[in-house]
Amino acid sequence: MEKLSGWKRSHTCGELKKKDDAAEAILMGWVHNRRDHGGLIFIDLRDRYGLTQVVFDPDLLNDFQKAKDLRGEYVIAIKGKIRKRPEGMHNPNLPTGDIEVAAHELKVLNKAKTPPFEIDENIEVSEELRLKYRYLDLRTQNMQKNMLVRHKVSKIVRNYFDKNNFLEIETPILMRSTPEGARDYLVPSRIHQGKFYALPQSPQTYKQLLMVAGMDRYYQIVRCFRDEDLRADRQPEFTQIDVEMSFVERDDVLNIMEGLMSDVFREVLGLELETPVNRMSYNDAISQYGSDKPDLRFGMKITNITDLVGDCDFKVFTDCVKNNGIVCGLVLKGGAKFSRKQIDDITEEMKQEGAKGLVTIKVSEDGWSSPLSKFFSEEKITELNTAFHAENNDLLLIFADFGEKAFTLSGTLRLKLARQENLIPKDVFALTWILDFPLLEYNEEEGRYVARHHPFTSPNEEDIDHLDSDPGKISAKAYDLVLNGYEIAGGSIRIHSSDLQKRIFELLKISNEEAQDKFGFLMEAFEYGAPPHGGIAFGFDRLVMLLADENSIRNVIAFPKTNSAISLMDGSPSNVSDKQLKELSLRIV
Asked: Are 59 and 90 in the same domain?
């Protein structure tokens, strides 16, 4: 292993071009690959900026044996002369493909064991192996590209909020536990034994206190923690772009966020975002797409035929309508090509999702190619075809169920079919705001209403009269920003009146004692003059995942956890010593 001994890197491995011909260069990096051509040895030298071809010629390099001994992932430094590659030998796939460096000095800065997988994103490697050796996985071009996108978005966010008079303010990581939503991660206190801090699920109460404090416009790129079941777009620790503003109404928040997204789209994707961004009510999103995070990159809207089938002879439909259910579904263009087995498979998949069944009808020139046609008159068949915009060779897929369930089943099937039939276009970004969410939802297990977002979300003024009579009808001043079927941000105008906040706590069956214990500091702050305020929080990891064209947030986080919340690389969570437990007055049962 040799020392740098005053060598200074003159160029990175991604910047040399034909204009640099005949200049001297000092490059440093990793041996990406090595090719021995008899008298000459070629390597591709890699750093995070790119690859440069280096040539070792025994006539130019004194200790040629060192070059012969090089292996993949050795860390080296070379001095040499830049030269154009011979005619016909340039590599159009590399930015440095017109040149090579003829080395006349070589230092081996560190040797490397043979890695457990090749540092090449084109070679398939199990995620388990990638996460175990994450420091090697991060050497791949794709992962380094993702980290660059993440860095770039973070820089754009800070620049945008700075020019719009927002202050970046840090809030505590050790806070009191307020378990309303996901489970908290708890941290035992050594000094105050028997008491615990919680890691923040979000800085919600702190950012509202900053508005009471007169900070007016706050943002933070902040770490948050939730002890919940994981999936491809969730992690136990994640990053939010957290925002709060004073003296604002809903549209003020939405307009500021659209400006941020415009900058992100322009600087990361080179796209101009059309503003104002499309807006849709929660009720329309559910009834048209079966989801409060609809993917608008393709059509296939849900058609509600409840009013058209109440008087037909098909008992499944009529019974559903009589019992205040919903009959709705989709038309798959050209779907009549599906075999009986394909339709049976789809039906079984939807039963796994909770469907009682799935009615499928092939549309043909002669009407419906289905045993169900006998239950419907020709006029009714024509009427239903018209409602679905169905044509010859299309397939109708219909659910009969209660409330939102018929819509959500249709929405789930819509996405399944779109993926299966390749209906989702690539390189398209479809943004939409979802507005006017229900304020509350009824939890059967707990026998009470719970907050749809959080208990500080303000109801719409026109619905406040329903607080006592019909809480389920109350809509909220809440809004989500959806990109390609993912919720990337969610927020609301907050309650700033302590009287209204107390009424909401009562509705949620949070007693005065419990409210005082969990949120007393916030309630007291409101009594000292809280301005009208509202905000939003972006799922930073999820946003970067979509911008980087990845399908898991683990691919845009440097050191993520697995689906079971384990770090394969460092072995966390791990056991701790009895001494540590004793200091905290804890024991494992």
From this structure: yes
